[in-house]
Design brief:
This protein is an alpha+beta fold and 362 residues long. The chain has helices spanning 3-13, 23-29, 65-72, 88-95, 119-124, 130-151, 160-173, 187-191, 232-252, 258-271, and strands spanning 17-20, 48-52, 55-61, 78-82, 102-104, 114-116, 177-185, 205-214, 217-226, 284-286, 308-312, 315-316, 319-320, 323-327, 333-335, 344-349, 352-357, 359-361. The radius of gyration is 22 Å and the shape is globular. Residues 136-327 form the Peptidase M24 domain.
Length: 362
């Protein structure tokens, strides 16, 4: 458990308790070992955590109390049952009535006593331990390996939905969750940021965009495929966006904050005489347990933490170069979603050779 980190946060802010309600926050607190969800299609947990004093208390609904206590919660967590007839807000306020200040990730109950957790708490959530780093690496290599193996079965005339259905099943069978999996083809490849799969039959050109999750941790990547000879315009756009990504990845190893990465990406667009092509879509984010809270944006002072996971997503001519990057304490950048199996090109910059995924010819 990350009790000491939360306790330090509370002491620094002079608050009496922290209430965690989000499954992401609870996953992080238990280092990915406890899933608070029953329904995996919703981001809603079956219990909440109250960290106060020297205790971690799980506030559980009466109907699920026995299962949570016997099979889900660690023995050092105190489980408390609450009646299903009582509204959650009332239950929480009853348990917290002796506290003056409580911070929470639940926006529904904010008032004079309950304040929202601040940016520092979520930055703490980005720093990964050794087990989480290993899990991230396994997820990345496994996901792309499954994709490479499945790609050999692709045929013109298959529908986007048929491809998504089989690939999603393979990933789930391997113990992964798949919050996002988009398969787009031909003119839809470059037209849409998220080409959500349709019944359209594929002809020559395919993109697959995925976000994969295991035990709360997420990775994201995008890959392209083509039947037969690749048109020159497609090759040129892939080369250009790979160059932008490479410059951004090298910048990450030196940058102090997300704003500096943004400036390097803009500089790369300018040097390559490319018109920026993101239309409000973020060029990158922190990912890990709560990536949606932090984006690579102009003038951002968001400090870069390590070891932590980031995703970079520059776009040129409707084409993404997207991978998950693990930034280490030593300042190196590891592409955890880029395996040995996928075809690659080398981008030479300064003293670096940056490998980027190419288009898999089928």
């Amino acid at each position: 458990m990350r009790f000491d980190i939360v306790r330090k946060y509370m002491n620094e802010r002079c608050i009496d308790a922290v209430l965690l309600d989000s499954p992401d926050s609870i996953y992080w607190y238990f280092e990915g070992e406890v899933d608070s969800r029953i329904d995996h299609t919703r981001e809603q947990g079956s219990f909440s955590l109250l960290i106060a004093g020297n205790k971690t208390i799980a506030i559980c609904p009466e109907f699920d109390y026995d299962r949570l206590k016997d099979e889900v919660l660690p023995p050092e967590v105190e489980a408390i049952s609450c009646s299903g007839c009582e509204k959650f807000d009332h239950v929480v306020r009853r348990f917290c009535r002796s506290f003056e200040k409580v911070s929470t990730d639940n926006r529904r109950i904010c008032d004079e006593k309950f304040s929202l957790l601040d940016e520092e708490f979520y930055l703490n959530m980005q720093e990964l331990n050794d087990r989480e780093i290993m899990r991230l690496r396994i997820m990345g290599k496994l996901s792309e390996s499954i994709l490479c193996e499945f790609a050999q079965e692709l045929q013109p005339g298959m529908t986007e939905l048929e491809i998504e259905k089989v690939l999603r099943a393979l990933l789930i069978e391997s113990g992964l969750e798949v919050p996002i999996l988009c398969v787009g083809s031909d003119e839809r490849v470059t037209r849409y940021v998220y080409p959500v799969s349709t019944g359209k039959k594929i002809q020559r050109y395919i993109v697959m965009r995925a976000v994969v999750r295991k035990q709360g941790l997420r990775i994201a990547f995008t890959r392209y495929f083509h039947f037969g000879k690749i048109p020159l315009e497609i090759e040129q756009n892939h080369e250009r966006v790979s160059g932008v990504f490479a410059k951004a990845a090298i910048a990450m190893m030196k940058a102090r904050n997300a704003g500096e990465i943004y400036e390097e990406i803009q500089k790369a667009y300018s040097e390559l005489k490319i018109t920026p092509d993101f239309n409000g879509y973020p060029l990158g984010t922190l990912i890990g347990y709560s990536g949606e809270k932090f984006e690579v944006s102009q003038n951002s002072n968001l400090p870069l933490r390590s070891p932590a996971a980031y995703v970079l997503s520059p776009r040129v001519g409707g084409i993404f170069s997207e991978d998950t990057i693990l930034m280490s304490d030593s300042g190196t950048a590891e592409f955890v979603t880029l395996s040995e199996d996928f075809p690659k090109i080398k981008v030479k910059l300064e003293s670096f050779r940056v490998h980027r995924p190419w288009i898999m010819v089928l």
